[in-house]
Amino acid sequence: MLQQVYHIPALLNECINGLDIKPDGTYVDVTFGGGGHSRAIVANLGTRGHLYGLDQDLDAYANNLNDDRFTFVHGNFAFLSNFMKFHGVTALDGILADLGVSFHHFDDATRGFTFRTDAPLDMRMNRESQITAAHVVNTYDEERLAQVLFLYGELKQSRRMASAIVKARTQQPVESTGQLIELVKPFIKVTQEKKEMAQVFQALRIEVNHEIEALKRLLTQSLELLKPGGRLVIITYHSLEDRLVKNFIRSGNIEGQIEKDFFGNINSQLKAVNNKVIVPSDEEIERNPRARSAKLRIAEKI
Length: 302
Fold this sequence. Notes:
The structure is a single chain. By secondary structure, the chain is an alpha/beta fold. The chain has a seven-stranded mixed beta sheet, sandwiched between helices. Helix 7 crosses helix 10. The relative contact order is 0.14. It is 40% helix and 14% strand. The N terminus is likely disordered. It is built from 13 helices and seven strands. It folds into two domains: 193 residues, Rossmann fold, CATH 3.40.50.150; 79 residues, DNA polymerase, domain 1 (Orthogonal Bundle), CATH 1.10.150.170. Helix 3 links the parallel strand 1 and strand 2.
């Protein structure tokens, strides 16, 4: 039953087409989650093909595929190269990453990922991690906290929110999602309440799980691991991630700096397969509203 509700894979057909799966190829789904994308990849593999599914949340192991062509790996994709070396893999035909938060995380009230339920301020993807959202809001100084809310949540009232949080925590620790909501609510427009509250929680989640740093490391390692002709398929859900992926594909480096050769050609080991970002259809959004902000970019190693 868990497998049916854990996660509905976004842009599934587009991802499978983007991977251009070879039956005997070796692939990695670095965000295994409910296994929706992984099942579709394995279904396109032959007897000699193999898929590795990474997830830093051990809860995802409940969705493990009972198939000899699949290996579950408990770990963060920031360390993808190390995991592949451990399994004797030196080159990949494709890497898939769906950077969205799964239904499981939103719907498990104890995890603190959503403002819709009162829960401990946790937000850890990996429960073995020491840093929680409560740690961030109770120990970061005002400037650092404001920076997190502004950079990762793109909140215009980030400084006022940070000031209110720091002032409140001198009286008592901010330990629940309900407490946090009451503190930031005065600085959120009533007409934008759901959107901006989601941005507050997004900012803290990104900080707790070091998501931007992990993505940068994944992108860099993809250049080392992909074979020529191998595909990089990434679904992002907010502008920070999308901009990072877009610039990386175009430039071939994390800084997004364009370098050209003598003839004016861009020096990049990647070429975009889809020059225009792929987004869900109206029909998919109706079936799966949580996919509405998904953006898919596909690149091929040159």
